[in-house]
Amino acid sequence: MSTPISDTFAAQLKEMRTDVLAQIRAQSGGAMSRAESAAEALGNASDDQAQANTERELTFALEERESAELIEIDAALKRIADGSFGLCVDCGVSIPAARLHANPTAMRCIDCQTRAEA
């Protein structure tokens, strides 16, 4: 992939990374981690137990999703750095630019992704 195109995707990925980190900070409420917030909510006597459990599970699910997203973004940035960005990790074919614009963390072409999800 040419340098100007790679630079465009790198900028998009860096912006995505900044957004995810901002979401994490906003959801953590600042000084207290989301896990601590969930534990505190669980400990409040006035909270309904089922609601507290649901909120805690949602918090953990969000953390997992955001962590996975950061890992995917960092992996894509690494592929840009090593020159393999835009190539399917399974078959080596070029991933269409439209797919990369829609999902710049894509590691596989559509056919290989379909097989990986089956």
Protein architecture, described:
The chain has 118 residues and is mostly helical. It folds into two domains: 3-84; 86-118, no CATH class. It is 71% helix and 0% strand. The chain has five helices and no strands. It has helices at residues 3-28, 34-43, 49-82, 97-102, 110-117. Helix 1 packs antiparallel against helix 3 (49-82) and helix 2 packs antiparallel against helix 3 (49-82). The longest helix has 34 residues, at 49-82. It is elongated. The two termini are 29 Å apart. 12% of the residues are buried. The model has no long low-confidence stretch (mean pLDDT 83).
Q: What is the helix tally?
A: 5
Poorly predicted segments:
none
The amount of helix comes to over 70%
Annotation, overall tally of beta strands = 0
The total tally of domains equals: 2
Based on secondary structure, the structural category is mainly alpha
Query: What is the rounded distance between the termini?
Result: 29 Å
Shape: elongated
Q: In what range is the share of β-strand residues?
A: under 5%
Write the layout of secondary structure elements.
Layout: H1 3-28, H2 34-43, H3 49-82, H4 97-102, H5 110-117
Helix pairs in contact: 1-3, 2-3
Question: How do you describe this structure in short?
Answer:
The chain is an all-alpha fold and 118 residues long. The protein contains five helices and no strands. It folds into two domains: 82 residues; 33 residues, no CATH class.
